[in-house]
Amino acid sequence: MSLYWIYLCAGGSKSSLLVTPGFERLQYVLLHTNGENCQLFKLKTQGHFQIWTREPLQQYDFDPRSASYYVALHFDASKPFPMKTCPDLHKDKNTFRANIRPLSDFMGE
Predict the structure, then answer these.
(1) Which of 5, 46, 56, 62 has the highest CB neighbour count under 10 A?
(2) Is position 7 within any domain?
(3) Could you give the number of structural domains in the chain?
């Protein structure tokens, strides 16, 4: 089993911390490259995430530059969740911002 962590920016420009409502119910994470090559992974534990600052991330050779705080999500990278479709992630023209979307967006009709 390949367990991985993914880090999402959580701190604003004034070092504030904002966690989007609904994040505590998060079950899956969608990884993609600029809206293409989508893969959906189930989190190890639903709604479980950690808030990390820059310093611990730098100890793991991660070079955080855009925020003071990061959300860390833990998932098994060896088991992508089967998707029927990958929705258009370019509609907002900002594919680098984390969004919470219903699982039905990825399961098709």
Answers:
(1) 5
(2) no
(3) 1
- Is there a domain that residue 59 lies in? yes
Give residue 30's domain range: 13-84
**How much is the CA Rg of the chain, to the nearest whole Å?**
14
Q: Flag whether 106 is in a domain.
A: no
Residues 3, 74: contact at Cβ < 8 Å? yes
pTM, 2 dp:
0.68
21, 23, 42, 20: which is closest to 31 by C-alpha? 42
Exposure class string for 67-78: b at 16+ Cβ within 10 A, else e: bbbbbbbebeee
